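Input structure tokens:
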């Protein structure tokens, strides 16, 4: 069966409305240019109405590849197997080179890599380093030691007891939790293990959500509506004093209630259930007392459950103590890691609400050593970063490096070619997981060789063996600033001092902020000055020691009397030693 050509042009489109507007423009930006009619092969016996589905792109252009794909999908039900095979043989099926790369869909990527394609791109080029691994693919020992557990705390044991039990069950060195729950309170308790304990402080300050059962001491006059109005009144910044039985000092403090909602009210039993979203450190027990005072009947907290801590809620992989115990038992007896990996989550799961900054692999270890992130080490960044906002620095594999403070906004990151992107607030990744990539420039390499030869001391400073060419050409900026300070404070002659007097205020304004080394030097000199008068005073006391005469008059001891007294004392000491 020979394929017959068919032609779709503007005239046919006018005669056959069912074909739609199928004329093709070669250049969509040129209004008057029209592409010549396109001849495409059509198998004999194919219903022409199927051509209506072949529309190409939105501007009416028909691509041969799209045509063949439409033919194969739409006509597969009406064609025989022989016709389909002949169509596949006769068609020119191939992937053509395109200038536009296909869009990457990262909506299902894990943890910090989710929606990675929506980040703004500073640079796409970097040299991958075969170090580090995706958080979900870490070996089990590393996975456990950098993991967190969303634990459903049972009633009766305290938070510290629960954390100590988990430490013993998992056989780890360190554990911490995201905020103390009272012994009778249940719900979300985020337990951090080993390396993840570096995130404990940030999690303790995160917001919390609770569901509380409150018991009123008498019938509420307005019923459910009055309780709802009272709860609405107790929102915003409130004064609170910790309860009588508490582990902190009972000082008046301000805590914020973000939102509260009455879930249920039983007028017969005088019980109410409400949900509250509040600041960390809020006492719900005190809130219940205030609610009773506001309604004029008195109230106390009957039961409490935490349903959310930070961004982790009771529906986010919450596990019980039995789950943790069983998971460790399964691994110990069957070497099956799956249960343990399900119970423990990577620490990156606590950082998904932070704005992200992606760092080059070559800059990762420098950040781990406390260096600030500079513009050359930046790959991608979030769209709405503000100055002094907390951000998370991450690798290209999705590992969290550190929590930092942004020093530039998104606009600055897009326009600047140098400067500090972020300074480090809390480092999370261990050092030397990635190789060192600093000190590899020509000047640094030469400096290392000179230190090895002894031409520089171990700190890289000049000594007696340093060549004169190095002293002339190399600029040590720290030493230069010290020298400027010495020149400003120690003029060579009185004439220079007289000339320098008018310029003193300007110099003072320049050196207004002293460096750390200057502060240390100043403290040492002040300590020496304080010690020197004390020594002089002691000497003066010894010189001015007074003796009494026979008449009872005090006078100063002479040098001969002092020498005789010392000789007598020495003789007594020797006689005592001989005895």
């Amino acid at each position: 069966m020979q394929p017959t050509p068919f032609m779709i042009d503007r005239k046919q489109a006018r005669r056959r409305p069912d074909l739609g507007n199928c004329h093709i423009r070669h250049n969509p930006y040129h209004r008057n240019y029209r592409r010549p009619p396109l001849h495409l092969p059509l198998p004999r016996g194919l219903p022409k109405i199927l051509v209506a589905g072949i529309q190409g792109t939105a501007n009416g252009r028909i691509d041969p590849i799209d045509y063949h794909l439409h033919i194969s999908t739409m006509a597969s039900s009406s064609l025989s197997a022989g016709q389909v095979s002949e169509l596949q043989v006769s068609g020119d099926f191939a992937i053509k080179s395109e200038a536009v790369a296909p869009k990457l869909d990262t909506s299902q990527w894990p943890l910090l890599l989710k929606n990675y394609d929506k980040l703004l791109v500073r640079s796409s080029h970097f040299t991958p380093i075969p170090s580090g691994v995706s958080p979900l693919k870490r070996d089990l020992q590393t996975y456990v030691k950098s993991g967190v557990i969303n634990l459903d705390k049972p009633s009766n044991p305290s938070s510290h007891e629960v954390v100590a039990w988990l430490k013993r069950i998992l056989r780890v060195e360190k554990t911490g939790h995201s905020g103390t729950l009272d012994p009778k309170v249940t719900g979300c308790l985020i337990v951090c293990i080993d390396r993840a304990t570096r995130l404990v402080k940030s999690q303790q300050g995160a917001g919390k959500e609770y569901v509380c059962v409150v018991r009123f001491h008498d019938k509420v006059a307005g019923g459910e509506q009055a309780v709802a109005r009272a709860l609405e009144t107790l929102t915003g910044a409130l004064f609170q004093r910790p309860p009588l039985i508490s582990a902190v000092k009972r000082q008046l403090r301000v805590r914020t209630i973000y939102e509260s909602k009455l879930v249920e009210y039983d007028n017969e039993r005088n019980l109410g259930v409400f949900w509250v979203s509040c600041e960390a450190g809020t006492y719900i027990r005190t809130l219940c007392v205030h609610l009773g005072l506001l309604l004029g009947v008195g109230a106390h907290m009957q039961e409490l459950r935490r349903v959310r801590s930070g961004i982790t809620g009771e529906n986010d992989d919450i596990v019980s103590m039995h789950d943790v115990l069983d998971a460790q038992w399964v691994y110990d007896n069957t070497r099956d890691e799956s249960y343990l990996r399900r119970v423990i989550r990577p620490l990156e799961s606590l950082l998904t609400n932070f704005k992200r900054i992606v760092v080059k692999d070559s800059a990762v270890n420098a950040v781990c050593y406390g260096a600030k992130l500079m513009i050359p080490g930046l790959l991608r960044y979030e769209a709405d970063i503000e100055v002094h906002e907390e951000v998370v620095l991450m690798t290209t594999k999705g590992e969290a490096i550190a929590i930092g403070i942004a020093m530039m906004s998104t606009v600055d990151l897009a326009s600047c070619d140098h400067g500090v992107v972020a300074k480090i607030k809390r480092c999370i990744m261990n050092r030397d997981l990635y190789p060192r990539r600093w000190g590899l420039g020509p000047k640094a390499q030469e400096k290392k060789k000179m230190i090895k030869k002894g031409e520089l001391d171990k700190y890289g400073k000049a000594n007696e063996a340093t060549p004169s060419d190095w002293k002339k050409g190399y600029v040590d900026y720290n030493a230069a600033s010290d020298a400027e300070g010495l020149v400003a404070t120690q003029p060579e002659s009185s004439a220079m001092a007289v000339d320098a007097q008018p310029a003193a205020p300007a110099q003072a304004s320049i050196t207004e902020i002293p460096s750390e080394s200057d502060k240390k030097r100043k403290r040492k000199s002040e300590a020496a000055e304080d010690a020197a008068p004390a020594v002089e005073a002691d000497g003066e006391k010894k010189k001015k020691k007074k003796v009494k005469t026979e008449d009872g008059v005090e006078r100063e001891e002479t040098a001969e009397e002092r020498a005789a007294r010392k000789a007598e004392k020495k003789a007594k000491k020797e006689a005592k030693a001989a005895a």
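The radius of gyration is 40 Å. The mean pLDDT is 77.
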